[in-house]
Amino acid sequence: MTGAGIGWGKLILCGEHAVVHGHPALAFAVTRRTRVRLEARWGPTAILGEHVDDRVLDALSTVLEPEGWTVRVDSDLPVGRGMGSSAALAVALVRARAALAGEVLDPDSVFTRAMPIERAFHGNPSGLDVAVAARGGVLAYRRGPAGPEIRPLNAHFAWSVVVLDSGEVGNTAELVAAVSRQRPGIDPLLERIGSLVGTAEQLLGDPPALGALLLENHALLRGIGVSNDRLDALVALAIRAGAWGAKLAGAGGGGVVLALAQDPAPILREAHRQGVRALSCTLATEAP
Ligand code: PMV
Questions:
Q1: Catalytic residue positions?
Q2: Is the CB of 78 under 6 A from ligand 1?
Q3: Which numbered atom of ligand 1 lies nearest the CA of 175?
Q4: Which residues partner with 150 through β-bridges?
Q5: What is the pLDDT of residues 216-230, one digit of tens each?
Q6: Which is more confidently placed, 62 or 4?
Q7: With contact defined as beta carbons under 8 Å apart, do 44 and 67 qualify?
Q8: Separation between Cα atoms, residue 56 and residue 286, nearest integer Å
Q9: Mean pLDDT, to the nearest integer, of 54-78?
Q10: Is residue 57 predicted with pLDDT exceeding 60?
C-alpha cells in the first residue's frame, strides 16, 4: 500500500515578513516541487531522502507515528532558500496520507492539516507558503483574524522570473522572530510593504513599474534587517544585467533573489560568469 502526494514550491513577489503581522502578500507557485511517498511497514518509521535533516525529522514526527511507515521524500526545491521547501513537504505529506486512506482533500483541508507541520518548522508561519504549496497558481493572501484570506488570481505573467541563489541558508524561524522583536519601531516599514502589495497586483501587466516596486520592497526588507551584502549584490547584478527589478524572496538572511526580466538570458549569463547559481523559473498554474 503506497500513498503519494506533492506540494509546490513558491516565490513571494511582494509582502514577506509583513504578511506574518497581518498585512497582505502576493506569491506564486513555481514548477518545482516536493514529492512524498508513504508506505506501511513493520517496525520503526524510516524517513528517507536527500534533504532529510533533524528539522525534517522533528517536523514529520509531529504527524507520523513512531512505528509503521516508510517515508520517501524527493524534491527539486533548494532547502532553506525562501522557496517554500518546508511548506511543500508538509503539503506533500498531508496529501500522501490522505491518498493512502483513499481520501480526496480540497485545498482548504490540505491547508488546515499541513499548518501544524509548518508550525513545527517555523514557529509562527503566516500560512502563505502552505497556501501556495497546496493550491499552485498566483495567490493574494492575508492572515486574517478569523483565518486565512486566500484569493487566487487569474494571472499570466508576460515576463520571466530569474532566481539567483545566494548559496546561503536563511533560518526562517529566527528571522521572523528577529523582525517581531523590532516592533513597533518598524511598523511603518511593515505597513509600507503591505501597501505595495495592492499596487503590485495592479501592476502585474506592467513589468517595468512592477520591477521598480520590487526594488522598493527589497529596500524595505533591508530596512527591517533581513537582507545582507550578498543579497544586495545579487539584486545589483540582476539590475546591471537588464532586470526590471529584483528583490530577496522569502525570509532572507540568505536564500534567493528573484529578478523580473523580459529576457532571462543576460542575467543567467552574468550570474554564471560570477559563479552564482541561477535558474529561470516558470509559474505553476495547475493544482497538483
Ligand atoms: O523563506 P520561506 O520560504 O520560509 O518564506 C518565509 C516567508 C515569511 O513571510 C518570512 C514567513 C511567513 O510565514 O510568511
A1: 129
A2: no
A3: 10
A4: 141
A5: 999 999 999 999 999
A6: 4
A7: yes
A8: 27
A9: 86
A10: yes
Contact 139, 96 (CB under 8 A): no
Separation CA 224–CA 23 (nearest Å) = 15
Q: What is the mean pLDDT of residues 262-286?
A: 91
Provide the pLDDT confidence category of residue 80 given band limits of 50, 70 and 90. confident
Do residues 260 and 243 lie in contact, with contact meaning Cβ atoms separated by under 8 Å?
yes
Q: Ligand 1: which of 176, 186, 224, 256 to mutate, judged by most atoms within 8 Å of the beta carbon? A: 176
Q: Is the pTM of this model over 0.85?
A: yes
Dmax over CA atoms of the chain, in Å, equals 58
The three three-digit cell numbers of residue 273, written as one number: 560568469
